[in-house]
Amino acid sequence: MLGRFIPKKRAGTGQAPAAGNAVLARYHQNSLSPKARRRLLYGFVFVNFILGFFFSVLPEQSKAMMTIPLFVMAALIVWLLPETGKPPTNFLAKMFFCYFVALVLWPYYLAIQLPGAPLIEIRRTFLFLGILTMLVSISVSSKFIREMKDIIGAEPVFFKILMGLVIAQTISVIDSNDVSSAFSAYMRIQLACTGALFMAIYVLSKPGRVLFFANMIRIVAVILAIIAVLEYENQGILWAHHIPSFLQVDDPAMTNLLDSAFRAGDYRVVGTFSVPLCYAEFMALTLPFFLHYMLFGEKRGYKIILLICDALVINAIFLTQARVGIVGIMVTHGIYGFIWSIRFWRTHKDSLFGPALALSYPVGLTVFALAMIFIGRLRGLWMGGATEGASTLGRFAQAEAFPPVFIQKPLFGYGPAQGAKALNFRNPAGELSIDSGLLNIPLCYGAVGAVFYFGMFIFMLIMGMKLAFNARDREIAYAMPAAVAVSFWLVSRIVLAQEDNASFMYMMLAMLVALSYQQKKMAATDTGSERILMPSAAPLPA
């Protein structure tokens, strides 16, 4: 059977077939002799035998590392593709938007499970196809490479920080106590975050795509808000007892996610997320996009509709009973109002409304701090009351246990997703728990990784606010809600360690990079005092 794949020697010559045989355009004849090719084939079969043997004897948690040769071979195949000048960028955009919808609206614990095969998650399928399409585009189109270089060149400091973070994450895997588990989490992070970011910067760099993406964010938020109302009436996840057999995952940890969550006898909405806190966090992250259109939109009827939708989203956050969501409502509205007041001050220098509103923020913060001290209901919403006492005490206990654990590996930490295991704090149910990103990130990536991680978001927050202050284009002005979302993400890291929304936040960073690229590209087309607007762009209304 192998003889079909092994070239035969020519009779009496012992030489390879003539080089004049026809080959496909852009390819060349193999220069290896038949003997060398046979050795190469035998070596390939032997290596596959070794890999198959270890795959059959290694434990399940170590098998993820055996997929490295598959990725290497796939990368080689993509790299060897000939130049065509026709990258599949339309398919790349479709995969990106499909991934976003699946990321938010499709529960990750509903996956296709075939006998003897790994779980097939819907969101990861779109993500894998998108990343593969992007790699194919890089391989077949030098124009695509130039465009990506130009987009990356719009914010080179950000990408240097991102590269530093990836290097720190890589070192943390090598130095981890559980390399196989850390490597599996590392691959998930690089695909869902770093890979999604590079997809997003190209897709969103095209004029009109950010506007489309903002509308999609609003739509999925409204859908989740409607699901929240129905779920609260049902007192349980709507699809918990209606899951088809081929989507049921035989894993107790995932099965427990379908159980109803209550606090003090009141049901907590969880939606398509793993816990109510992550659901509330995502809904709060979408609020700036509703506020933005209500202030800068063109259609009054649509503004009224979005005002109602904004109220639906806020109601859904209250149904989660998650303090991070309440904080999100206050932070997003407060910071957006501050950015808007500064922008109004800069663009309407003859009006006193902008400076009066901007300068009133210190007074407002002082009044809010006093209100939290003396008004019990407000203090309970922000800081938590008796029903949240166990959660608050748990956070303090974790903070006390953090220093000695961190000191053992201060530079690069214990590895991706290893923070809770390293801290070894268990909640009353006996489960490993870590509740603050300020503790989790340093434990996972060490001080070096934490500096890069938080520095990346802080840098883009500052850049996004500058871009928002100076925006004169309807699409570039969406740097305002993106920057507000980044600011709330940083605040939520104080009380939340779960990174269910990390992939979405990397999309926000990509949106800011894409808008910065559009702004610089637009500035390059300026002629004299006139500015040439990009397609589908229009000045902001006064």
**Fraction in beta strands:** under 5%
Percent range for helical residues? 55-70%
| Count of runs of 4 or more consecutive helical residues | 20
The structural class is: mainly alpha
Which stretches are low in confidence, meaning pLDDT under 50 for 5 or more residues running? 1-7, 9-20, 527-542
Radius of gyration: 27 Å
Number of strands: 2
- Largest sheet properties: 2 strands, antiparallel
Q: Alpha-carbon distance between the termini?
A: 76 Å
Q: What is the H-and-E element order?
A: HHHHHHHHHEEHHHHHHHHHHH
| Strands ordered across the widest β-sheet | 1-2
Large-scale geometry: globular
Let me know the average pLDDT.
79
What does this structure look like?
It is a single chain. This protein is mainly α and 542 residues long. Helices cover 65% and strands 1% of the residues. It has a two-stranded antiparallel ribbon. The chain starts with 33 loop residues before the first helix and ends in an 18-residue tail after the last helix. Strand 1 (262-263) and strand 2 form a beta hairpin. The protein has a domain at 152-347 and 386-524. The longest helix has 34 residues, at 437-470.
Task: Chart the SSEs and their pairings.
Elements: H1 34-57, H2 68-79, H3 89-105, H4 122-140, H5 142-154, H6 156-174, H7 179-204, H8 209-234, H9 252-256, E1 262-263, E2 266-267, H10 276-296, H11 300-320, H12 323-347, H13 353-359, H14 361-374, H15 376-383, H16 389-408, H17 419-423, H18 437-470, H19 479-492, H20 502-524
Antiparallel strand pairs: 1-2
Helix pairs in contact: 3-4, 3-7, 3-8, 4-7, 5-20, 6-7, 6-18, 7-20, 8-10, 8-11, 10-11, 10-12, 10-19, 12-13, 12-18, 12-19, 14-15, 16-18, 18-19, 18-20, 19-20
